[in-house]
Structure formats: structure tokens, C-alpha cells
Write a structure and sequence with these properties.
By secondary structure, the chain is mainly alpha-helical. It has nine helices and two strands. It folds into two domains: about 60 residues, Orthogonal Bundle (Arc Repressor Mutant, subunit A); about 150 residues, GntR ligand-binding domain-like (Four Helix Bundle (Hemerythrin (Met), subunit A)), CATH 1.20.120.530. Helix 1 packs parallel to helix 7, helix 5 runs antiparallel to helix 6 and helix 5 runs antiparallel to helix 8. The longest helix has about 30 residues. The chain is globular. The N and C termini lie far apart (about 70 Å).
């Protein structure tokens, strides 16, 4: 058999899943809203079949709900779901920190340091979009650096729900400053390859995100009530 060239671009299915996931996570498709399949097919230039296959993936991630003969709708975000999701992903983050310190090489740590520096720069000028991009790059690099495919696949499934929560409320200055301080400590521990301490801190970092989210949601509800 002739040499087969390695695929360098994501397949149509993977791209569709990612685009749809981002639309849900970033609130372009609202909780409870019916997924407009016809409009999305026209916008993406695809037929119903690949779109529905992509929606099945999002359904497995808990982002949409498939309804027999009625298409799909975006899943509602509940307090119980957020609490359960953050509890599990916090434990996964702890394992990520431990394994990343074991398995990342010096070049991998240098890459994360570079993204960390970019995140600090974005924080300095209050560029929220650039901050979140660098922040996500850091966490993705740590997960990949952990070198455990099972951990990575489960983390990826839950991470979309956590990312979705980020768009539900504004990031307070207090939490933003706290997150930066936590990341600074994370980098010190990563460079020292102190896996146990980094793992514990990454777990705390995730739980602190949840606490900040709960407070912000409560404040938003109070504002609506008044």
C-alpha cells in the first residue's frame, strides 16, 4: 500500500462539533432555546445528517437535549449541575497537576510559562478575551502534558460546561486578582515539579471559580429582584 498522508485538518464532524459547542458555551445559543437546525445548516453549508451527528456529541456532553421528532434544544444550566460538575472537574484538575509535573519536559513547561506571561499581560490591560484565551491555552497544555488520554477525554467533556458557566456572569475584579495570584503560585510549583502541591492548588483554583460563580449568580438574581 502506498504511503497515506496524515490528516492535518480536523474532519467536518470535529469542526462542526467544535463550532456548535462554542455557540452553546458562549451563549450564542441560549439555554432552553430550540437549536435552529435549518439556519445552522445554511450557515455552515452542510446537510442535516452531519449537523445531527454533531448534536449527538453535544448531547453526550450534557450541552443539548435531543427530543424525539422535535429536534434538539439547549440544556438549561442548573445550580445542581454546576455544583456536581465543578466537584468532579476539581478532582480531575488535581490529577492533571500531579501528572503534568511528572511528564512535562522542559520545553513543555517553557511553553506554559510563555502563555502565562501572555495572560499576565492581558490582565494588566484588562483584555478579558486575550486573558481567557491564554488561560485556556495554559490549562489545555497542562492536560495534554499530563499524558493520560482517558483523563484528557473526560476532562474535555466537562470543561465545556465549566467554560459555559464563565459566560453566565461577569468576572469580578476581586476574583480576577485572586485567579492571577493562584496562577502565579501554580507556575512556581510547576517549575519546581512539585506535583502534589500543584495538584492541590489546581483543585482549590477550580473550587474557587465555583464559589465566585455562585456569588455572582446570587448577586445577579438580587439585581433582577430589585
Amino acid at each position: 500500500m502506498n504511503q497515506i498522508e496524515t490528516l492535518r485538518r480536523p474532519t467536518l464532524h470535529e469542526e462542526l462539533v467544535e463550532r456548535l459547542r462554542n455557540m452553546v458555551v458562549e451563549d450564542a445559543l441560549k439555554p432552553g432555546e430550540k437549536v435552529p437546525e435549518k439556519d445552522l445548516c445554511e450557515a455552515f453549508g452542510v446537510s442535516r445528517t452531519p449537523l445531527r451527528e454533531a448534536l449527538k456529541v453535544l448531547a453526550s456532553e450534557g450541552l443539548v437535549i435531543l427530543q424525539t421528532n422535535r429536534g434538539a434544544r439547549v440544556a438549561e444550566v442548573t445550580q445542581e449541575e454546576l455544583e456536581n460538575t465543578f466537584a468532579v472537574i476539581a478532582m480531575l484538575e488535581q490529577l492533571v497537576g500531579e501528572l503534568a509535573c511528572q511528564n512535562l519536559d522542559d520545553a513543555g513547561i517553557a511553553h506554559i510559562q510563555k502563555r502565562h506571561d501572555a495572560m499576565i499581560k492581558a490582565f494588566g490591560v484588562r483584555d478579558l478575551q486575550a486573558y481567557f484565551k491564554a488561560n485556556q491555552d495554559i490549562h489545555n497544555a497542562l492536560i495534554e502534558g499530563a499524558g493520560n488520554d482517558i483523563l484528557e477525554s473526560h476532562h474535555r467533556m466537562l470543561a465545556a460546561r465549566v467554560r459555559r458557566a464563565r459566560f453566565m456572569v461577569n468576572l469580578s475584579d476581586e476574583r480576577w486578582q485572586q485567579a492571577i495570584e493562584e496562577h502565579e503560585k501554580m507556575m512556581v510549583l510547576l517549575r519546581a515539579r512539585d506535583g502534589q502541591s500543584l495538584g492541590r492548588l489546581m483543585k482549590i483554583h477550580m473550587l474557587n471559580k465555583y464559589d465566585a460563580l455562585v456569588k455572582a449568580l446570587a448577586a445577579a438574581e438580587d439585581d433582577l429582584a430589585n
